Amino acid sequence: MSDHSEAPVAPVQAYEPPYYVAVFTTVRTQDQSGYGETNARMEDLVKDVPGYLGMDHAQTPGGLGITVGYFRDADALAEWRSNAEHRAAQKRGRAEWYENYTLHVAKVERSHGFIREQVPQSPTAG
What we know:
This protein has about 130 residues and is α+β, with helices and mostly antiparallel strands. The protein is built from three helices and four strands, in the order E-H-E-E-H-H-E. It has helices spanning about 35-45, 75-80, 85-95, and strands at about 20-30, 50-60, 65-70, 100-110. It has a four-stranded antiparallel beta sheet with strand order 2-3-1-4. Helix 1 (about 35-45) runs antiparallel to helix 3. The termini are far apart. The mean pLDDT is about 90.
């Protein structure tokens, strides 16, 4: 995963189900040569898939990485899975960047979210 500190900290919004998620959980190798560039390319490339809804990332201090991709339907997910550049990146990931990983794909049947409303601050008297 790349450094996402420049992105706003907010989860992907809740969508009207059904939709699909791909949960990719990883432990990476020590040598990450070329990973950042490839990861950035994949993040740009997936945005072109019709039905792509967004992506969340998390990284634990111990090195466990989690990426969740959201897709409107199974066809969108299949298009991403079969993309030639994505397939090449997967192959390189297995050869170089990952100690291990799991991929879970699920159909979302329920989804909701919460956003705290900002209360306007009243001016203070001086």
